[in-house]
Amino acid sequence: MRINDLTAWHVRIPLKRTIRHASHTRSETDSLVIRCRLDDGSEGWGEGLPREYVTGETIDTAIAQLEATDFTAQLGDCFAGLEEVVAACRRLELAEPAAGGLTVPAGDRRDCFGHSARCALELSVLDAATRWAEVPFSDLTGLFAPAMAIRESSARARYSLAFTPTGRFKVRCRGWLMRAFGFHQAKVKVGVDGVDDASLLGLVRRSVGPRVDLRLDANEAWSCDEVVEKMAPLLCHDVSSLEQPVPHAEVSGLAEVRRELEVPIMLDESLCSVGDARRAIESGSCDLFNIRLSKCGGFLNSLEIAAVANQAALGYQLGCQVGETGILSAAGRHFATSVGGIRYLEGSFDRYLVSERLTVEDLTFGRGGYAPALLGPGLGVTIDRASLGRVEVSRRDWRVSSEVTA
Prior knowledge:
With 406 residues, this protein is of the alpha/beta class. The protein has helices at residues 52-55, 59-68, 71-75, 82-91, 115-133, 139-143, 168-180, 197-208, 227-231, 254-260, 274-283, 293-296, 299-311, 326-336, 350-353, 385-391, and strands at 3-20, 25-38, 43-48, 156-158, 161-163, 185-189, 213-217, 239-243, 265-267, 288-291, 315-318, 342-345, 370-372, 392-399. The strands form 3 sheets. An 8-stranded parallel beta sheet has the order 5-6-7-8-9-10-11-12. Strands 3-2-1-14 form a 4-stranded antiparallel beta sheet.
């Protein structure tokens, strides 16, 4: 097996509705889609969503890193099997982009810079390789030694819903539908300017009923000095966790907050790498990790972060980023159906959120949030070339193999 060439697309995915939280308001997303083509014609696909306020990346820096990377040196070998491909992906290092495309000096960047590009590239290579091997993408979990303690196969996954600040009637309708269709968990966004969190959360709780697990996400809205005070009027609504209440720059102060707050704290924007995970454990700043494939640098890094959490007796969820298409939905499904102990699961919002899902298959979850495991080969999805063409902004091509294919 040999990688012949790579192609990257900058795509702009329109959302079906505007999504608002404390850190950002979004009606579209600029994403990176990569195709990996093998010498036998097999194709694999990957996706990454650069977020400057999370990992420091933009779509421009992601593409600049790819353009500066010597793919032939790192991926140009002939691979005998999946184990060798996994090893090559673990060694993969993206080059420094040209200085003119950067907004954050190299010395000030976190170790997650470049993770969206790495995720898109890794997924495309692993998708192509598992298609070549004619096995499901989720088989990679069984080949990845650090994930040994968390491997667990399941026939289906169960997703949760989310409530963002919107009109009261829409909140009620979503809550009623959630109850009627048997959903068991939901996230509520808090900390948005001009929104009364206690009123919003009370309305959600009355709408969904007492049995639904509700967790909160503040998206860095508060300071450490405010967290306990801000949470006081919300505790009566029986919330199970609070996600990223403070900016990343203040995350070290959460160890003290945890001693005063009755609700478990989850890290998101401050949990983007294996290094972040180890630092969080050492400092005692959280109880749970929110793992998202793109910000964490791909499938393999995400497996390792989950394994680190498990070893430290911390909880973890698999999250998603706003605007993920069917490519990342498929990768998340393979993660969710091959890893045990996932506390909460987000993603597969395809039909409800993106105007172009990029895949022929509709991976949107069904009644109760349930969705079946994907049986492959590879990610188990087919790219809709017409859909890709409609959202293309630009395209780059790279030859990887030094050999000429017939």
